[in-house]
Amino acid sequence: MSGTELIENDEDSHLEQVFVRSKTVVSRCVAGETLIVPVRGKVGDLASIYSFNGTGSLIWHALESPKTVAQLVGAVEQEYAVEHKRAEQDVHRFLDDMLSVDLVAARRAEQFAGESHVE
Questions:
Q1: Exposure winner among 1, 14, 58, 97, fewest CB in 10 A?
Q2: How far apart are CA 90 and CA 11, in angstroms?
Q3: For residue range 41-97, what is the model confidence (pLDDT) as tens digits?
Q4: For residue 1, pLDDT beyond 70
Q5: Does residue 9 surpass a pLDDT of 60?
Q6: Sequential DSSP letters for 32-91
């Protein structure tokens, strides 16, 4: 299993995981829009540039340090004053999309136990 695959395929498994950004991307905020460029072989892959909306940008910036789904959902709820269920759906959709293109990696929470990264 690679580090970017879901540990299990159900949403409950997300609760036991911590998510982190891939180290093989460069991200920039340009004119209020977050742009992500994967780096392959020390060169930016300009054919695979990703752009995030406001919610995606919020989650991406939160993933600067490892976060759980609950932490990400809380950030979305607080920023956008949306219902818990909606925030949860948005976070799961974002994480699933990012995992599928290797922009985010999932780790078991205990891999970060004792580290100060999970806030």
A1: 1
A2: 13
A3: 666 666 678 999 899 999 999 999 999 999 999 999 999 999 999 999 999 999 999
A4: no
A5: no
A6: TEEEEEEEETTEE-GGG-EEE-HHHHHHHHHTTS-EEHHHHHHHHHHHH---HHHHHHHH
- Please give the Cα distance from 64 to 52 (Å, whole number): 15
Q: What is the DSSP string of 86-106?
A: HHHHHHHHHHHHHHHTTSEEE
CA distance 27 to 1: 26
Q: Which amino acid would we find at residue 116? A: S
16-34 pLDDT per residue, tens: 799 999 988 888 888 878 9
| Residue labelled with tokens 């695959």 | 5
Dihedral sign of CA atoms 57, 63, 68, 70 in order: negative
- Sign of the Cα torsion 91, 94, 100, 104 reads negative
> Rg of the chain over CA atoms, in angstroms?
14
